[in-house]
Amino acid sequence: QLQLVESGGGLVQPGGSLTLSCAASGYSLTYYSIAWFRQAPGKEREGVACFNTNDGMTYYADSVKGRFTVSTDDAKSTAFLKMDSLPPDDTSVYYCSTHPLRCSWSRHAYHFWGQGTQVPVSS
After folding, report:
1. Is 101 left (phi over 0), alpha (psi -120 to 50) or beta?
2. pLDDT at 5 over 90
3. Burial group, residue 90, by CB count within 10 angstroms (0-12, 13-18, 19+)
4. For 57-71, b where at least 16 C-beta lie within 10 A, e where not — what string?
5. Per-residue CA distances from 89 to 62, 77, 93, 122 (Å)
6. By three-state DSSP, how is residue 108 classified?
7. Which residues lie closer than 8 Å to 86 by C-beta, 6 or more apart?
8. How far apart are CA 118 and CA 13, in angstroms?
9. Which residues contact 22 (CB under 8 A, 6 or more apart)?
10. How far apart are CA 115 and CA 73, in angstroms?
């Protein structure tokens, strides 16, 4: 059974850091593009970062560029999203997904998601 499980969320103070994990089971992440999305209360799910397997590049939304970093551990079929200098506006539920081809900023391009992990940024 193909499954993605996000973890690592939790309360973080403004300006703090957090690293989220995305563990895949039932398949390897090696040949997939890996996307991170987030959804704040009352808002649409938006893409924040994506590792594109086609060109080996990682793309970031302007709102997180320079603060978020994507990495992967292929041996463990796990991807990570390191988040630094978090402001309250980053409060969201964070999701990961994969695509067999290229990255897309549209959530409709992805077929399944993990359950998400909550990241409240507050003092």
Report:
1. alpha
2. yes
3. buried
4. ebbbbeebeebbebe
5. 14, 30, 12, 9
6. helix
7. 12, 14, 15, 16, 17, 18, 67, 119, 121
8. 14
9. 4, 5, 6, 34, 36, 78, 79, 80, 81, 96, 114
10. 20
Task: Tell me, rounded to whole angstroms, the distance of Cα 63 from its chain centroid.
Answer: 14
Chain length of the chain: 123
Name the token pair of 99: 């695509």
pLDDT in tens, 55-107: 899 999 999 999 999 999 888 799 999 999 999 999 999 999 999 889 999 99
Q: Looking at residue 26, what DSSP letter applies?
A: S
- Helix then strand count (H, E) for the chain reads 0, 9
